[in-house]
Amino acid sequence: MRYYEDIEVGTTEEFGEYHVTKSEIVEFAERYDPQPFHTDEEAAAESAFGELVASGWHTAAMSMRLLVENYLRENAGMGGRGVDELRWRQPVTPGDTLSVRTEVVDKRRSESDPRRGYVDNDIEVRNQNDDVVLSYTVTGMIERRNPGSSE
Asked: What letter would DSSP give residue 74?
């Protein structure tokens, strides 16, 4: 288990492989983001995208899956505080394979609860061509191994 004290600013990790399917794109969109360029191939062909594309929220959800399976399970996580600078950089299409790159950019102890610290990670989600399709900064709450220490 990786505690707050074990995390170093500047650390990067790359991981994951998530294969995006047309049926998953349509299913997610029909339920949560029913815009025609997410749900209908003919309408999508006439859109600015020119083809069926995943909802940005679906892309964010897929990135969360990769983070949980490959990164967050290793941390003594206590939940998240928020996301900043969320940007959908390029469309995600059926057949894409997504992976994630994280970089620890900041950490600080909680002023209100000595049991936790806050860790900021810059997240980049990339497709099989190494194009960044989604980026954001997430602040996570991480349990401190030694709540009384000055670190």
From this structure: G
Q: What is the pLDDT of residues 65-95, one digit of tens each?
A: 999 999 998 999 999 999 999 999 999 999 9
> pTM for the whole thing?
0.93
Pairing of strands 132-143, 116-126: antiparallel
- Residue 150 lies inside a defined structural domain of this protein: no
Residue whose tokens read 């900064």: 137
3-state secondary structure of 27: helix
Which CATH number fits the domain that encloses residue 17?
A: 3.10.129.10
* Separation of alpha carbons 9 and 132, rounded Å: 22
Domain span at residue 74?
Answer: 4-143
87 vs 81: CA distance, rounded Å: 18
Is the Cβ–Cβ distance between 149 and 3 less than 8 Å?
no
149 lies in some domain: no
Within 8 A by CB and 6+ apart from 85, the residues are: 135, 136, 137
